[in-house]
Amino acid sequence: MADASTAEPGTLPPSPPPHAPAPRHDAGSRALAATIAVFATILGLIVLAWTVLFVTKGRFLKHTFERIASSQSGRTVRVAGDFNFYFDPIATKFLAEGLTVSNPAWASRPNLFQAKLIDTRIATFTFLFGNRSKVNWINLVDGEANLEWDAKRERNTWTFGDPDAKGEPFQIPLIQRAEITGTNVRYRDPGMQIFADIGFQAINANNSRFANAIRFAGDGRARGTPFRLWGQQSSPNEILAGGRNEFELHVDAARTRIDVAGTLPGATVIEGADLRVAVRGQNLRNLFDVAGIAVPDTRAYRLTSHMVKRGDEYRFTRVTGAYGNSDIGGTLTVRVPSDPDDRMLLTADLASRRVDMVDIGPFIGYEPNALASKGAVAAAAASAEAPSGGVPRILPDAPLRVDALKAFDAKVDYRVADIRQPFIPISNIVLGLDLDHSLLKLSPLNFDIAGGKIASDISIDARNPAVVTSYDIRMSPTPMGKLLARFGVAESGTTGTIKARVQMRGTGNTVRDSLATSNGRIAVILPRGTFWTQYIQLSEFDLGVFVQRMFQERLKRPVQVNCGLIAFTVRDGVAAADPILIDTDKNVMTAKGGFSFKDESVALAFRADGKKFSLFSGQSPVGIGGHFAAPTIQIVTPELLTRGGAGVALAAAVNPIAGLLAFVDPGDAKAAQCGPVLAGASAAAQKTKDGKPRKDVGSGQSKEVTKRK
To answer: pTM score, two decimals?
Structure first.
């Protein structure tokens, strides 16, 4: 090769031959190879670890398990005998002989759990990544679990870690199949007043479809009520039957029997299971009292339904049954929140085709058995202390259970097509009940009555110690002939209607107390129409006309009502006439006095003044006295006796004919101006037809009532 120094001027030496290009490496291929290598290494380590665990059964991990479990749980965990723990791709094997897990110091028993033997297969995936482990199979021998809340319901024995941490709700492990022998579960919840002891024993399966069966029985107390339960469950033989567990449960408590039967997806899995539930007892309230839920008293009942659990809801569908002589059906959902600080919620959609009037009485506080056998007066007296003087009471005094209302909320719709044996025709009841943090609303409470309608809105505010009840009851125009047919009013001769409104507000946790302290107004309006009853002339007390019609058999002639108002102003439970004013074609009827919700006394004086001359008229008030449960009518009043005495004196001093002058009615009654009457105005707004203020009606003052007692 020529040297560059010898080359001719202006020329370059030839270039050396190019080298072969360096090989190019694909970065993606390197990453994939590395990933495969890492994965293969991890898989190899897992296989190696699993092989070691499989061969050794993980016995060498016994002390490691005790140390880690004790550290993580904050409890002492010990295994006295053999120990197995190893992973399976599908199910992890765990076995321990003489396993004990201690309780916190405040608990009444030293150990939360102990067992002679626990042998189980746990689904590996849920064990590693799930919030709730799934147990494929468990064999438990001579086990004991002590589940307990503290007195303040702030801590429990199954919440691990910080001993002062808030207690979490108990979750039953999801167990598919189980074989349990000689095992007891003890549960204590002083806050909810629930105490139970349940024992489990293995029994021989009845047929080859089932691999084994477990029988359980126990007793306890719930809110002071003793209960007893028993039942059994048969786990399927997976080779022959596969599938589901047969389950049955029976409970006796508070004169109530509950029977549950059906199939479960797993031994402790009720999610989605369709169970048949039958309940019967003497009083539905007894059953709900055990759960701390307030419902009204009922007569003897029987109910059947299907129950399905979805999340935190227990749904009772296809409910059918009866209480007393009344039928009932529909759906009921009970939501039981996982957080004990949240409130239970009851949602129901119920309906009855026919309801016996007697069966409704307990809803407002009447003693059901006395109501059925003796009537409302006896039922009210049976549920109350005897009032002074032995006067019977009719207003119920069953107390509203304020404490129970604080434990749950409710939304209930209830419809009744027809009422059997009513005092007046009632049908198509629609009730909407809403309970929200101790505020109970009955809205709507509507029903058809004798051709008219009653719409009501009632609220009971129990959020404060002083329970406040508000009443707003409205009656649309209703035919008086149908409404009062059972009280002597002739439907054929009566065309008049009646409409009314009651607005009151009172304090007290019984119907009686709330009315006895109430303030408000009651107004009953009678528009123009005819009215007939065989007692109408007695109320007008025109003796001449009454006697004449009685002997001529023309008593059934209707009375023409131009307008009428029966109204009361209520102050502190005393209702005073404000006003009572009825204008008929021949008379003007007025009344003074009133009644008292405090002692259920009545003190009213009705008077009828004629618009035309009457030769022989009493012209004196007809008194209505006594009490709601035992009213009295006083036709011979002191005023009439005075007039009779005057007539006797005139007859003796002048002549017998002169004695009749004391009973002459000149017919000077002032007709009413119907505008204020039909508007339901107070006595102060009432006027005569000539526009002058009326002075012959009650003024709405409570003193007028007490004066007439």
So the answer is: 0.77
